[in-house]
Every structure is written in C-alpha cells, then in structure tokens.
Amino acid sequence: MENIQIAKRIKLTCKFKNKTISQMLVDCNISKSLIYDIEKRNMSPSCDKMSRIADYLDVSVDYLLGRTDNPEVNR
C-alpha cells in the first residue's frame, strides 16, 4: 500500500474511534509531523510507530497497512 493510503487509513480509523490525530500522536509519543511526513514526504513509518498507533487505536498493524480490511487484532 502506498504511504498516502496508510496515512488515510490512520486518519479514518482515528475519526471512527473518535480520537484526534494530534492526541493520538501525543499519547503514542510520536512526532506531530508523522502524518505530514507520510503523506507529503513519502516517508514510511517505522514498525515501532505503526505498532504503537495500532495498539492505541485497537486495530491490527495489517489493517493500517491495508493488508486486510478486518481491523480486529489477532490475539
């Protein structure tokens, strides 16, 4: 999946979970420029950052990466 699509899925999931992007990034201890960097600079987020975001939003990393349409976490 393209980085733009990853950013879009993160944004949509935040909206669905009634979370703001800014608050999620602060709570996950991630730079506030992450979404901009993903969308505009075509930077790929690290595995660690994706894992923190997925845990915060209670979805799987595979879902955020677009590898599945099922947001459920495999536990």
Overview of the molecule:
By secondary structure, the protein is mainly α. It has helices spanning 3-16, 21-27, 34-40, 47-57, 61-65. The protein contains 5 helices and no strands.
Note the total helix count.
Answer: 5
Strand composition percent = under 5%
Low-confidence stretches: none
Categorize the overall geometry: globular
Succession of helices and strands: HHHHH
Helical residue percent band: 55-70%
* Structural class computed from helices and strand pairing: mainly alpha
Mean pLDDT: 93
Q: What's the total count of β strands? A: 0
Distance between the termini: 24 Å
Measured on Cα atoms, how large is the radius of gyration? 11 Å
Largest sheet: none
Structure summarized in a few sentences:
Helix content is 59%, strand content 0%. By secondary structure, the protein is mainly alpha-helical.
Any descriptors?
75 residues; mainly alpha; 5 helices; 0% strand
What is the strand and helix layout of this fold?
Layout: H1 3-16, H2 21-27, H3 34-40, H4 47-57, H5 61-65
